[in-house]
Amino acid sequence: MTNRPDGRKADELRKMHAKVGVIKRADGSALFQIGDTIAIAAVYGPRELHPRFLQNPEKAVLRCHYDMASFSVTERKKPGPSRRSVEISLVTQKALGSVVDLKLFPNTVIDVFIQIIQANAGTRCAGITAAAMALAHAGVSMKEMVAAISVGKIGDKVVLDLTKEEEDFESGASDIPVAITSYDKSVTLLQLDGEVTRKELSEALKLALKGCNEIFKIQEKVLKEVYTQQPFLEKSGVSQKQPLAASGGKK
Ligand code: UDP
Fold it and tell me: How far apart are CA 70 and CA 77, in angstroms?
């Protein structure tokens, strides 16, 4: 396999678009689009956790809820939770949990709702990227940001940001979703669907880091813009936040 179906280079991301403040009622919210995949994340909290026996007196509970809308794919997806959505919610919580200062908010819950409104592969990664922005937009204290991207192998070629068409490549493809933190560059999500050699995995991780570094720039731009216009300490109500946008990647 030499050429990608959409003409991208092996290390090229799809076109990206990001926006925060997309849901007025939420404490923080964000939209992240990469190619045809669109994720919206909404954060509520920290707020008191009920029932009380679920509270942790030492730290907040971070709850992530991932869902893909029925209309997000061409072949209608059955609505409601599935094994897949439970798994993705769990890995999303693991991918974000280590960067959020949960100890600052004992006995509370921070709810993160991720809705995929259009899917063309890489939805868990788009969801994690949007959720990290929504948490920052909510003013939740975080040690660093998190971005996620899928890398993989199509035939014998390692590529960045696979589309659904590439994932379904007839001679076989491997898909590796990766989440990386912005400062330490720690890997907080690493999954593998398929097979790769140690050398290919190392190559894939380098590509993932390159992709995440590009995503960090967009996350930072959008968040800086919103807080430059309306400094955090002057924030008098989430509803006053203005939606702001930034785009990047392939034109
Ligand atoms: N998909 C679908 N129907 C489903 C689940 C997934 O059409 O019920 C498609 C969708 O485009 C998704 C892709 O398959 O992005 C890959 O799904 P996967 O489970 O690998 O997770 P993702 O790559 O989205 O994180």
Answer: 4
Reported as a single tens digit per residue, the pLDDT across 85-130 is 999 999 999 999 999 999 999 999 999 999 999 999 999 999 999 9
For 14-35, the DSSP string reads: PPEEEEE---TTSSEEEEEEET
Whole-number Å distance between alpha carbons of 196 and 194: 7
Q: What single-letter DSSP state applies at residue 78?
A: P
- Calculate how far, in angstroms, residue 89's C-alpha sits from the geometric centre of ligand 1: 14
- C-alpha 129 to ligand 1 mean position (Å): 16
Contact 131, 64 (CB under 8 A): yes
Which residues on adjacent β-strands are paired with residue 222? none
Please identify, by atom number, the ligand 1 atom nearest to the C-alpha of residue 119. 11
Q: pTM for this one?
A: 0.93
Based on DSSP, count helices (H) and strands (E) in the chain, helices before strands.
4, 10
Structure tokens at 166: 């590439």
Q: What is the pLDDT of residues 153-196, one digit of tens each?
A: 998 899 999 999 999 988 778 999 999 999 999 999 999 999 99
Query: Side chain identity at 98, as an amino acid letter?
Result: S
Q: Answer yes or no: CATH 3.30.470.10 is held by domain 16-232.
A: no
Between CA 207 and CA 200 the distance in angstroms is 11
Question: Which residue from 34, 11, 1, 237 is spatially nearest to 130, judged by alpha carbons?
Answer: 34
Report domain extents, the chain: 16-232
